[in-house]
Design a protein that fits this description.
heterodimer; A: alpha/beta; FAD/NAD(P)-binding domain; Immunoglobulin-like; 3 domains; 5-stranded parallel beta sheet; B: alpha+beta; 5-stranded mixed beta sheet; 2 helices; 17% helix
């Protein structure tokens, strides 16, 4: 059996940044396993600009951003295998994978970093009535077809869902000569970044129909049209508000789901809110030595934050290997958890936090807590309570479910509260 | 005096800007949280510009198309001229990130460059 210190599952932005960080923190034997034909993951099909403002202080396209990391991986001599599908990971961290050159592979890893990303919710998850004609694509599939495979999936388009991929594809299809008739969004607000509503819809005069959904798809062989209707506050279509749109294509941009089939099977505890692993301050799951980062952990809006999070996972995996002696004993580890674990509670408008708990003694100088709110807030405060005591109160002019929030906790701050049991994060309206 | 409300597209924060103008000249930009926002606000009401990204056909390469961008932003009204100018172009592989695909796209003075490397098949 082959053996590596760190094996990273997935060669997208998270996997690349994790690998680079682990190597820079002194780990020698690192392997990235990637199922696609090239490194870079979803960035390869995200040809639009807007990536890297935080990381590189310039505005890059997806492939350019990926290239920065791919170059680092190559300069650091980090091993990777393409066209390689991971089928299974055992709790003892033995990875079973397949590819055409090696056939069936078994690899023993001292630490595993889960970086498989996410996949799109599909029509099946939506209960849209109508036939099953050709011409219905998830927005990401259409994006790959247009940007990487050189096909245009249709000429008259309606998009359901205003997530960022849907907005980006509205512009992309327009530039390719298609007519995008409308973007319908079930919620009363968009799930995408505001900048994308401006530069992808408003720039091209594409209507955004909030509180609308698709109630019928017409056409047997090929989509011939869709019916949109307004919905009430509970998301139910309101009779009499139906509008017909003649089109040959329906794109769905209705949410992303972390890809955790392998994680779940190996016994990683998953959070029902994020569909991603429950992790501690080290981005480590309940299985010692198994870390998670990027969209497999929780769906991000910005690749810059994926890279930051993944770099942290890479550093913590490196620490884990160095400190293996003290970590490896399950017994001992449980004691550490029991005695020093601080729960982070999401309350009052906060849907979830990453991480879910903190062991202060394992913290770096500062820890970024990432979270999402449940609805749109204007002029609100993000409040952090150490047990009952309010310690942070930060004003936010605008907070929305489509835009991930973050706050920084300092290790020194936590150390002042040795008996701290839980940290509560909540939104207060002004 | 005129007042326009904009969402800054300079970065994903998406600041809500208020830009005040007097006879076409910018008097003030408010609501921005960085320098980039001020620049965007001023430019958006006087000479709006966008970076254009699309793909161009590649012949003989490992993949059939290469992603491209305008090196900087170009006037907004030139977007479709730029796209049309790129429509007929076929580039033989190999193409490297940063290669100029079309110089001075649609008379903007801005080059269109490849954002990806496509190796020979």
């Amino acid at each position: 059996m082959e053996a590596y210190d760190v094996v990273i599952i997935g060669g997208g932005p998270a996997g690349l940044a994790a690998a680079v960080a682990a190597k820079e923190h002194g780990i020698q034997k690192i392997l990235i396993l990637e199922r696609d034909r090239e490194l870079g993951g979803i960035l390869n099909q995200c040809i639009h600009n807007g990536f890297g403002l935080h990381t590189f202080k310039e505005e890059l396209t997806g492939p350019e951003y990926a290239l920065r990391y791919i170059k680092k991986v190559q300069e650091l001599d980090i091993e990777y295998r393409l066209n390689t599908m991971v089928a299974d990971i055992s709790p003892e961290r033995v990875i079973t994978a397949l590819n055409r050159e090696d056939g069936l592979l078994e690899i023993k890893a001292e630490a595993v970093i889960l970086a498989m990303g996410c996949r799109e919710r599909s029509r099946g998850a939506l209960n849209i009535p109508g036939y099953r004609p050709a011409g219905i694509f998830s927005a990401g599939t259409a994006q790959r077809l247009v940007n990487m495979e050189g096909y245009l999936p249709g000429r008259k388009v309606v998009i359901l869902g205003s997530g960022d991929i849907g907005l980006i594809m509205a512009r992309r299809m327009t530039l390719e000569g298609a007519k995008v008739k409308a973007v319908a969004e079930l919620m009363p607000y968009s799930g995408g970044l505001r900048r994308n509503i401006v530069q992808c819809l408003e720039d091209y005069g594409i209507p955004l129909k909030l509180s609308h959904t698709v109630v019928d798809i017409k056409g047997r062989e090929r989509v011939e049209g869709v019916t949109l209707a307004k919905v009430d506050e509970r998301g139910k279509p309101i009779p009499g508000t139906e509008e017909e749109y003649a089109c040959d294509t329906l794109l769905l941009s209705v949410g992303l789901i972390p890809e955790n089939e392998i994680s779940g099977k190996m016994g990683v505890e998953l959070n029902p809110v994020t569909s991603g692993p429950v992790v501690n301050e080290s981005l480590e799951t309940n299985i010692p030595g198994v870390f998670a980062c990027g969209n497999v952990l929780h769906v991000h809006d910005l690749v810059d934050f994926v890279s930051q999070e993944a770099a942290a996972a890479g550093r913590f995996a490196a620490d884990f290997i160095r400190n293996k002696k003290s970590f490896q004993e399950n017994q001992e580890r449980e004691e550490i958890r029991d005695s020093h674990e601080i729960r982070i509670i999401s309350d009052g408008g906060v849907r979830y936090t990453i991480p879910s708990f903190i062991r202060p003694e394992y913290m770096e100088e500062s820890l970024t807590i990432r979270f999402r709110v449940g609805r749109v807030y204007r002029d609100c405060y993000v409040c952090v309570y150490f047990d009952e005591k309010l310690v942070i109160r930060k004003k936010r002019l605008y907070a929305a479910p489509g835009e991930m929030e973050e706050l920084i906790l300092k290790k020194a701050q936590l150390m002042e509260y040795p008996a701290l049991k839980q940290i509560t994060i909540k939104i207060q309206e002004a | 005096m005129e007042e326009r409300h904009l969402i800054c597209i300079g970065c994903p924060v998406g600041c809500a800007l208020t830009v005040k103008t007097e006879q076409g000249a910018v008097i003030s930009v408010e609501g921005n949280t960085c320098k980039r926002g001020r620049e965007y606000g001023e430019k958006e009401v006087t000479a709006p510009a966008r970076t254009v990204t699309t793909t161009v056909t590649v012949t003989g390469g490992k993949i059939p198309a290469v992603s491209v961008r305008t090196r900087t932003d170009i006037p907004k009204e030139k977007i479709f001229d730029c796209i049309r100018a790129l429509k007929g172009i076929q580039i033989p592989a190999p193409v490297h990130t940063g290669d100029i695909i079309l110089a001075d796209a649609a008379g903007t003075g801005v080059d269109v460059v490849a954002t990806k490397t496509v190796e020979l098949r």
